[in-house]
Each structure stands twice: as C-alpha cells, then as structure tokens.
Design a protein that fits this description.
Layout: E1 9-12, H1 20-28, E2 33-39, H2 47-51, H3 67-70, E3 80-84, H4 91-103, E4 108-111, H5 116-119, E5 126-130, H6 142-153, E6 156-159, H7 165-171, E7 176-177, E8 200-204, H8 210-213, H9 215-228, E9 232-237, H10 243-253, E10 259-262, H11 267-276, E11 279-281, H12 292-298, E12 303-305, H13 309-316, E13 323-324, H14 328-337, H15 341-359, H16 361-376
Parallel strand pairs: 1-2, 1-4, 2-3, 4-5, 5-6, 6-7, 8-9, 8-11, 9-10, 11-12, 12-13
Helix pairs in contact: 1-16, 9-10, 9-14, 12-15, 15-16
C-alpha cells in the first residue's frame, strides 16, 4: 500500500485546461503530481493559454501554435511534460508506446480526453476524467469503443457535467461528480481601467455551435431587448462551426452595428472582458455549464444560462445563483433584470460566494484527494 503523500500521480491530457489548475492546486498541497500535455494541440488545451496574455493572431495555427511564441511569457514548470504527437511514419504506434512508457512511471493516473484510450493498457490504476466526452459515445467507431472500454476498466470516473450523469448511469459506469476547479485568486472582479461607451454590455464568449450552445436563441432575445434599450451592445466570440449562421442571423435581424466581434481570447484577456460586461451569456441547450459560467460568476458577474434543476440539484445539492432561462421570452426577462445595477451587484456577490464554496481550489482538491486515497491506499 502507498500513502497518498508518497504516491506519484500524473494527469494526462488537459482538454480546455481542465487539468492544469488541478495539478497546480495539488502541487500547492505538496502532492507529487505531474501534468502531461501534447503537441500539436489546440491552444485552448495548453497551460500557456490559461496564464499568459496571448494574441490569437500572433501564435500561428491555433491547432498547432508556435511554441516559441507561446513560451515568451511562460516558464514551464518542472512538473509539466510535453508529449510529441507530431505525425511521422509509424506515428500512431510510436505515440502509443511513448504514452505507455510515461504512464508506467506513476502510482496513479488521471486520464483526461483522450488518454483513457491509453491508460487501459498501462497496467496502472487510473481514473478517467470526463468533461462531456460521454455525450458522443453513441458513435460507432473504433475510437469510441476504446473510450468505452477505457471507462469500464477505470478504477473510478470523475464527472464534471451534471447533465451527463444520466448517461453514466445508462452505461453502468462507476463515477463521482466533482466540479471544475476555478482559481478564485485569478478569476475575480477588478474595476476596468476604461469602460465601454454603452450602458449595457452583454458578452457571449461561447463558441458558435447552435446545437449545444443555443447562441441563436440568445441573439434573438438580445434583438428584442435592443429595441427598447438602444444603448446596449452584444460582444460575441468570433469562432465556432456555426459562425456563418450566426453572422447571417445578425444581418437578418439588422443589428450588425450593435455587435462587437471578439477573437478567441486567452484567459487573462477573457477575465478583462468578464469585468467589462454587465452580464455573461453561456449556453441554452445542455442544462449544464462548463468553465465559462463559473469563471464569470467568480468575477461577480450575473450569468444568463440554462441549467437543468434536476441534474444540478443532484450534483451540487442546491442551484447556482444564475439567471436560469431557456426560452427566448425567459432570456429577455433576464436581460431586463440586468438593467438594474443593484440587482447585478447583488447577484454578482452571491455568485462569487457560491463559486468559492463549490468550485474553490481547496474544496475541489479535497474531493480529488478523497478519490485518489480510496484507490491508492486500499
């Protein structure tokens, strides 16, 4: 038996930086934990994107960013390792053995997407980390079958999205719900140096993907709001598979002049926009949030989003203090509520307190350690 204080632990993968904050928090607790990322990878899944002030236009291809540019303001910690996934002859076989060799140096693995595929062959105990991948398990291909097998072989699965718990029950996987970790020392309200020249600024940072985000529903609601409140603006992230559909909708509604298009932003820049905004729009389809909503809530901003009461009560024990809306008329009512600055301040304060209690580093780290100990110290 290995005590948790003596164990070597590694998180493999960092999809949209879902591992980096956890590993950092574990390190702060003197738990020997390493992080493995890989390249090429989308810039959103690299620690540099989380902590550095980066311009998307200066890094080259977002799916294979320039490593020298990324590291200009970043000192790679000794516990962060980079796997080379560049293509070459026999690349898949070389990649497989590179990962397996690295995994076998540890007492416990936490396999983020896509590393459950590898961990099942490591002969090491591992936990799968799911941030929504199970939603796509109905695909009939080799990759998905390996993912399912990887989840079945895992000692446990950490689940971060309340709406997916039904799917875990359906497939019969063993799992524990653990919220995303939000570094509340970084995500916090700071008074902007310069305000935008509008009374109401709404910000929708989610990618344009109508099927999961419902961006169109919010835009149509904003259109109705803007008819009465002309001194308002909607800032939208200019990325995602449905970007062209979003632009066509905005043109059809005739609100092009009331839209600010923003590039995909590294987290320091995103935090500034949270703080510039009156309220944040997240998603209106899935019934769960990812990291956008809790990040904005930590910055004391009202968040307009759709949450399934059933699933979120099951996950958290109570409901996050968001402005919960799914239909256009309900979203419009939330926008109208946000014209009251005292209301916004009150909801913002409640939101930050809730995030500290549910998503704070100490709280989430304790939940991780409890799961690790149950496996390592058996």
């Amino acid at each position: 038996m290995v005590e948790i204080e003596d164990a070597r632990i590694a998180h493999f993968g960092n999809l949209v930086n879902d591992a980096f904050p956890i590993v950092k928090a574990l390190r702060d607790r003197q738990i020997a934990t390493d992080l493995y990322v890989y390249r090429p990878a989308h810039v959103c899944s690299l620690p540099q994107w989380e902590v550095c002030d980066l311009d998307i236009n200066s890094i080259g291809d977002p799916y294979n960013p320039n490593w020298e540019t990324l590291n200009e303001g970043f000192t790679q910690p000794s516990w962060m390792h980079v796997l080379d996934f560049n293509q070459g002859f026999f690349s898949k076989l070389q990649r497989f053995w590179q990962v397996i060799k690295a995994m076998r140096a540890y007492d416990l693995l936490v396999a983020h997407v896509p590393f459950s595929i590898y961990a099942q062959f490591s002969n090491k105990p591992y936990i799968s980390f799911d941030a929504g991948a199970i939603r796509y398990f109905d695909a009939n291909n080799i990759r998905t079958r390996l993912f399912k097998r990887g989840y079945l072989k895992a000692k446990d699965i950490i689940v971060t999205n309340p709406d997916t718990m039904d799917l875990f029950d359906k497939y019969g996987f063993k799992y524990h719900f653990v919220p995303f970790l939000i570094d509340t020392s970084r995500y916090r309200y700071e008074k902007p140096e310069k305000k935008l020249p509008y009374e109401y600024v709404f910000f929708m940072p989610s990618r344009q993907y109508w099927q999961e985000k419902g961006n169109n529903i919010f835009i149509e609601s904003f259109y109705q709001f803007h008819k009465e409140y002309k001194d308002s603006i909607l800032a939208i992230a200019e990325w995602g598979t449905d970007l062209h559909r979003t632009k066509e909708l905005i043109k059809k509604l005739g609100i092009e002049k009331s839209i600010i298009w923003l590039p995909l932003m590294s987290k320091p820049r995103l935090i500034k926009w949270y703080n510039l905004s009156t309220a944040i729009a997240d998603q209106f389809v899935l019934g769960s949030y990812g990291t956008t909503a809790p990040e904005a809530m930590a910055c004391e901003k009202p968040v307009i989003t759709y949450l399934s009461e059933e699933h979120n009560m099951k996950a958290f024990g109570d409901l996050p203090p968001v402005l919960n809306a799914r239909k256009k008329e309900d979203i419009l009512n939330c926008l109208l509520l946000c014209t009251d600055h005292n209301f916004n301040r009150r909801i913002g304060e409640q939101s930050r307190k809730w995030i500290i209690r549910i998503h704070g580093p100490d709280v989430v780290t304790n939940k991780h350690l409890a799961i690790y100990k149950n496996i390592i110290e058996k």
